[in-house]
Amino acid sequence: MVGIKTDIQVGLPSANRVLCHSVNRVTEEMLGVVQETGLRRGDGRRQRCQIRQISMYLCHVVLGLPQQEVASAFGYDRS
């Protein structure tokens, strides 16, 4: 899995954390297969970043989760 920290973040409802984790896994599976054939040396990090960014976007826009909760689920501080 790419992007989501496994330690427990305080203040984030576990249902939203699980939901973000699931979105990240599905995005990784869908995009990982498509992009795998074109990987060059050093592109792995870029691919992981793109997958994380797409996952965060989907969690916020499609699922309607607040950006603060999405950031927390992915281990980022939006301050």
Outline: globular
- The tally of helices reads 3
Describe the largest sheet: none
The H/E string reads: HHH
Quantity of strands, as a count: 0
Terminal-residue CA separation: 25 Å
Low-confidence stretches: 5-10
Strand composition percent: under 5%
The amount of helix comes to: 55-70%
- Derived from helix and strand composition plus strand pairing, the structural class reads mainly alpha
Summarize model confidence as the mean pLDDT. 78
Radius of gyration: 13 Å
Descriptive notes:
With 79 residues, the chain is an all-alpha fold. It contains 3 helices and no strands. Helix 1 crosses helix 2 (43-61) and helix 1 (14-36) packs across helix 3. Mean pLDDT is 78; it is low at 5-10.
